[in-house]
Amino acid sequence: EDHPDYKDLVEASHSLGEVANYIERAQHKAFARSRMIEISLSIQFTTPKDQIQIVTPSRLFLKEATLLSILPGSSVVLRPHKIFLFSDIIIFCHETGDNKEEKAKEKTAFQYKNSVSLGDITRSLSDSTLAGTPCIILSTSPNSSLPISSPFPSSSSPSPSPSS
């Protein structure tokens, strides 16, 4: 602290830290944008009615996860669902194809199943309309989870039915 250049060195160090943080944020945004484009190219829509615009200027890719459905009272795992979480929407898909060699050669493709606007979820949670409905727990960390209504068709029973 007694060195004549100490104050200048502290300022320079602070400036370098800010530049490093800026670069890190820019890299994260670029990765998220790139991943969003990859996802949009890999999702197959069954009908034109299902088609949604995945890449938008205000949308940010946040996270992806695999959801395993288990038949109630058993250990039978149904077809896994792929979930893509964006800043304003959650998209639910199935992976297409079961051939591991095929997956290794090509980028994995996903069959669109449904999407839910995060604005709709917020309204549903605040209206307490989830009581007694089948739901999925979306967890992005061990200490945080968000219950959402099942976007998959369900039978008359409260248990989600398998989707294909």
From TrEMBL:
GO terms for molecular function: guanyl-nucleotide exchange factor activity. Residues 141-164 are annotated as: Disordered. Signal peptide: none annotated. One of its GO terms (cellular component) is cytoplasm. Residues 141-158 have a biased composition (Low complexity). This is Uncharacterized protein. It comes from Paramoeba aestuarina.
